[in-house]
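Long-time lurker, first post. I've been practising inverse folding by hand and with some scripts of my own, and I keep getting stuck on stretches where the structure tokens seem ambiguous. Below is the full token string for one chain I'm working on. Before anyone asks, I'm not after the true native sequence, just a reasonable design that respects the backbone. If someone could post their per-position residues I'd love to compare against what I wrote down in my notebook.
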């Protein structure tokens, strides 16, 4: 949750041209959801809870929707040359939206790989949706090794940077389509911001 809270705090730095209004909507909504999640389960996610899962998915959906809105405003502003923010603010906005997109997709991978953290802890899913190196070679980790959230964050980052799988392989259609969607969004954001920077930075 620390990564999510820090990423939500970055949203407050977005200029008015890019921020989804009202600007306080995402931080306040997410703070309530994170608080509810901590009340439901203040410890480690080592069991399945339907209430906990619903709250977690609401957090992910809120982050994804609001950041998607910021991405649309950013791309539209660049495409129509209507951004009024200074060059540094536009580049900062591009970085924040890009990073938040990475975090949002890492949370989707975390929540849906083998049914989510609760079901993974119970071992209910025999076949994985994402194959990590430690799962393919027993000599790389302990027999009961399970990916942590940071493994999914790294996986999401490499997909956004390389636009393709690196060390983690998608085995299910939903994982492949989600990775493809993330790569497309990341590519569009990177191309638009870089193109804007080339034309406007002096």
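-- Answer (accepted) --
I ran through it position by position. Result:
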């Amino acid at each position: 949750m620390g990564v999510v809270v820090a990423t939500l705090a970055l949203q407050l730095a977005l200029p008015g041209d890019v921020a989804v209004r009202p600007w306080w909507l995402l931080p306040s909504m997410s703070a309530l959801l994170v608080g509810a999640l901590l009340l439901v389960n203040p410890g480690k996610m080592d069991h399945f809870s339907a209430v906990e899962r619903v709250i977690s998915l609401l957090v992910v959906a809120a982050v994804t929707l609001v950041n998607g809105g910021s991405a649309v405003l950013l791309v539209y502003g660049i495409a129509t040359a209507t951004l009024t923010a200074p060059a540094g603010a536009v580049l900062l906005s591009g970085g924040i939206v890009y990073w938040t997109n990475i975090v949002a997709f890492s949370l989707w991978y975390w929540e849906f790989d083998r049914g989510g953290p609760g079901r993974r802890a119970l071992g209910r899913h025999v076949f994985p949706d994402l194959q990590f190196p430690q799962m393919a070679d027993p000599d790389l980790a302990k027999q009961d090794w399970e990916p942590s959230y940071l493994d999914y964050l790294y996986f999401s980052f490499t997909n956004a940077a390389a636009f393709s799988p690196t060390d983690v392989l998608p085995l299910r259609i939903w994982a492949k389509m989600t990775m493809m969607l993330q790569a497309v969004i990341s590519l569009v954001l990177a191309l638009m911001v870089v193109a804007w920077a080339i034309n406007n930075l002096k």
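A couple of notes from the structure itself: Helices lie at 2-11, 25-40, 50-80, 87-112, 117-122, 133-136, 149-162, 173-200. The chain is about 65% helix and 0% strand. Happy to go over any region you disagree with.
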